């Protein structure tokens, strides 16, 4: 899942970033309310983690403005204020869950997973379905395992994200910017050929033992996924 953390405390933000990234998630971080609101309004994240006390706009204001704009992304609010009244205020502002500090990271992760499951069950998930099949290739996004004509292919985290993006847009041109957005966070400063290198490794895994490639290069534009036989390298 793609997570936006809005947290102004440096050590806390780093703690969440490290834990979520090690768990295989793409994480963006904002350090104040205005910046966090702008990023959240793009509605590209599966879930938000919002600190209650933020410079600029506080967490309650950020959430209220998101809901006013029709952004329904699930929100987990983290706060040192943990009284019943504080929790009620957070929930009334529009957050979906509220966790008082100090907390264990395992509980943060469990609550985020629960929020995303609930969204998926309501048909609102940004990443549904988690198992994709296009032509002769199937991909389990959760386990990062692809299957092509019975051959099992184990993928790395970013390889899975890139392949998922390509498969969801099968038959369409997917630009390099689209691929960057799907697999890296805002802080990443790409070099000119980072996408090409990852696609090369992905092709090598998918196409080993086969006479044709499932990913075509579209000169000057990007890449295209074909589930069937392709003669274009």
- The end-to-end span amounts to 31 Å
Strand content: 15-25%
Following the backbone from N to C, one meets helices and strands in this order, namely EHEHEHEHEHEEEEHEHHEE
**Helical residue percent band:** 25-40%
**Strand numbers in spatial order across the main sheet:** 2-1-3-4-5
Assembly level:
single chain
Task: Indicate the CATH class of the largest domain.
Answer: Alpha Beta
Radius of gyration: 20 Å
Shape: elongated
Largest sheet: 5 strands, parallel
Q: What would you say the CATH architecture of the largest domain is?
A: 3-Layer(aba) Sandwich
Protein topology:
Blueprint: E1 2-6, H1 10-22, E2 26-30, H2 33-40, E3 47-51, H3 59-68, E4 75-79, H4 84-93, E5 97-100, H5 105-121, E6 131-134, E7 137-140, E8 145-148, E9 151-154, H6 157-168, E10 174-175, H7 176-183, H8 194-207, E11 215-218, E12 222-225
Parallel strand pairs: 1-2, 1-3, 3-4, 4-5
Antiparallel strand pairs: 6-7, 7-8, 8-9, 10-12, 11-12
Helix pairs in contact: 2-3, 6-7, 6-8
Task: Describe this entry's structure for a reader.
- The structure is a single chain.
- This protein has 8 helices and 12 strands.
- The chain is α/β, with parallel strands linked by helices.
- The protein folds into 2 domains: 2-121, Rossmann fold (3-Layer(aba) Sandwich); 131-225, Arc Repressor Mutant, subunit A, CATH 1.10.10.
- The strands form 3 sheets. Strands 2-1-3-4-5 form a 5-stranded parallel β-sheet, sandwiched between helices. It has a 4-stranded antiparallel β-sheet with strand order 6-7-8-9, with helices on one face. Strands 10-12-11 form a 3-stranded antiparallel β-sheet.
- Helix 2 packs parallel to helix 3, helix 6 crosses helix 7 and helix 6 (157-168) crosses helix 8 (194-207).
- Mean pLDDT is 84; it is low at 124-128.
């Amino acid at each position: 899942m793609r997570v936006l953390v809005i947290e102004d405390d440096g050590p806390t933000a780093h703690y969440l970033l490290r834990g979520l990234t090690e768990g295989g998630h793409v994480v963006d971080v904002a350090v104040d309310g205005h910046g966090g609101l702008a990023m959240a309004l793009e509605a590209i994240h599966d879930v938000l983690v919002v600190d209650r006390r933020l410079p600029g706009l506080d967490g309650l204001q950020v959430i209220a403005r998101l809901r006013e704009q029709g952004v329904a992304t699930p929100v987990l609010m983290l706060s040192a204020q943990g009284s019943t009244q504080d929790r009620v205020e957070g929930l009334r502002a529009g957050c979906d869950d509220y966790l008082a500090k100090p907390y264990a990271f395992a509980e943060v992760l469990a609550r985020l997973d629960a929020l995303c499951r609930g969204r998926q069950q309501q048909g609102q998930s940004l990443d549904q379905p988690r198992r994709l099949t296009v032509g002769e290739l199937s991909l389990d996004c959760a386990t990062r395992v692809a299957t092509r004509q019975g051959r099992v292919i184990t993928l790395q985290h970013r390889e899975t994200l890139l392949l998922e993006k390509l498969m969801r847009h099968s038959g369409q041109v997917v630009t390099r910017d689209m691929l960057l957005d799907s697999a890296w966070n805002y802080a990443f400063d790409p070099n000119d050929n980072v996408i090409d290198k990852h696609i090369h490794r992905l092709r090598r895994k998918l196409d080993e033992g086969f006479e044709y490639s499932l990913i075509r290069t579209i000169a000057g534009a990007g890449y295209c996924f074909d589930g069937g036989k392709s003669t274009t390298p």
